[in-house]
UniProtKB/TrEMBL annotation:
The chain holds residues 655 to 928 of 928 of the full protein. It comes from the Bacteria. This is Diguanylate cyclase. Residues 24-274 form the EAL domain.
């Protein structure tokens, strides 16, 4: 009996793994055609100065609406793209879109940040694309910010440091994304040419409930400011969270409280209604 149920369980897991693999294969195949099929788009989420309510930055976030799979979350497809070289093409596409959108309302009054995956940090083709866009006059480097996760920095500190220094020389700003989740040593903060720390959403979510989270957020803000860095808090959804972050001197706040990520058309519509 035990044996049989054991086999049953095994078969059950086997099916689940099969399903998972089939989905990954379909994502991989679909993603190859996504750009050509016009299935990719960008949404932009504001980062707001809590003292004035002004939008200082918009984070560009990729969306994939697949004809076959429907809308696939970036958490899922970016991971697949990273395992292959597809992330290089996706980022190439993204930089072209951002350069174009940066001249449109309301983006033209703010900075724009883009996300770079750890994996592509090992090649500098993304840098070439950025340089081309700057040389063409399509992109103003002083209005661009690049977000890199801590894990990208930890994986290859020397290379990341070198690449960041090169892009900083172009006038581009640098943010560490999801700060607090990536096991980076504090020494990195001193040695890397960074402008912003983005405190991960997981520390912001419970600040009204959990005194430890409040302490972490307060301390990160004090430390960042002492090091000459600005702080962005991710994922603020409530007025209470925003009030706490503002009191602590957080420079920018991003989250559903202010706005969800929106298409350019929706941003314009919001402006007209306000
Ligand atoms: P991220 O860079 O940390 O982006 C912030 C994520 O938090 C976004 O999820 C955003 O929609 C979500 N978010 C913002 N405010 C709130 C809030 O108040 N509540 C909640 N629950 N969520 C909030 P999204 O768009 O699903 O992107 C997930 C991740 O996928 C991003 O995390 C980023 O790591 C990656 N990603 C998205 N677009 C790109 C891209 O173009 N290139 C690369 N390399 N990665 C990307
Ligand atoms: Mg980001
Ligand atoms: Mg983030
Ligand atoms: Mg995050």
């Amino acid at each position: 009996y035990a044996k049989e149920s054991g086999r049953g369980r095994y078969a059950f897991f086997d099916t689940r793994i099969d399903e998972r693999n089939r989905r990954l294969v379909r994502i991989k195949q679909g993603l190859r055609q996504a750009e050509a099929n016009g299935e990719l788009s960008l949404v932009y989420q504001p980062e707001v100065d809590p003292n004035t309510g002004e939008v200082r930055m918009y984070e560009a976030l990729m969306r994939w609406n697949s004809a076959e799979l429907g809308s696939v979350s970036p958490a899922e497809f970016i991971a697949v793209a990273e395992e292959t070289d597809m992330i290089v093409d996706l980022t190439r596409w993204l930089i072209g879109e951002v350069a174009r959108d940066s001249h449109q309302e309301p983006l033209k009054h703010s900075k724009i940040s883009i996300n770079l995956s750890p994996r592509q940090f090992r090649s500098d083709s993304w840098q070439d694309r950025v340089r081309d866009a700057i040389q063409d006059g399509a992109l103003d480097p002083t209005r661009l910010c690049i977000e890199v996760t801590e894990s990208a920095l930890v994986e290859d500190f020397a290379l990341a440091n070198e690449q960041l220094r090169e892009i900083k020389q172009l006038g581009i700003e640098v943010a560490i994304d999801d700060f607090g989740t990536g096991y980076s040593s504090l020494a990195y903060l001193k040695r890397l040419p960074i402008d912003y720390l983005k405190i991960d959403r997981s520390f912001v979510a419970d600040i009204h409930l959990d005194p430890d989270d409040r302490t972490i957020v307060e301390t990160v803000i004090v430390m960042a400011h002492a090091l000459g860095l600005k702080v962005v808090a991710e994922g603020a959804e409530t007025e209470q969270q925003v009030a706490f972050l503002r009191e602590q001197g957080c420079d920018l706040i991003q989250g559903y409280f202010y706005a969800r990520p929106l298409t350019l058309a929706a941003l314009v519509e919001n402006m007209e209604n306000s």
